[in-house]
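name: query_chain
kind: protein
chains: 1
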Amino acid sequence: MVDSEKRGRTTRPRWLIKGFRHAVLGFGLFDVPVEGSAFTWFKSLSTAHAVEERLDRALANNAWFNLFSNALLENLVAPASDHYSILLHRCHAPRAPIQNRKLRYENVWQMELRFKTMVAYSWHMPLTPSIIPKLTICTKDISARRKHHGNKLKFDI
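structure:
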């Protein structure tokens, strides 16, 4: 958000928008890049009193930009209004394929002698405090053992 968001007439005092700008920065939000006109509202175009402003925007954080790295905002022409519509194009980054079958925990596994040992070993493999990598490794290890031994899961190591 910069001073180039208004063209024409007098500029507004900086303190009017200071709180909004502070909140946006405080939450780690950034403008989605704009294609087309930088302004989304106008008044008295083609006159000496013309004013154009950017009133509408799309904001996102880094996590969103990582997911939709090619996203852009398009300001569309609106022939019957003084506001331009905005259209968000979120060409997302490709994701890893999702497996068709999900692993479901079976209570009977607790009866296998080495199940707890295998889970503990898998759980402590990644040296990370994050739970997602730990769950991923445990799931892969259990799935591999299940695939190798069929539905009769045996955990003899």
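note: Residues 145 and 153 are 7 Å apart (CA to CA).
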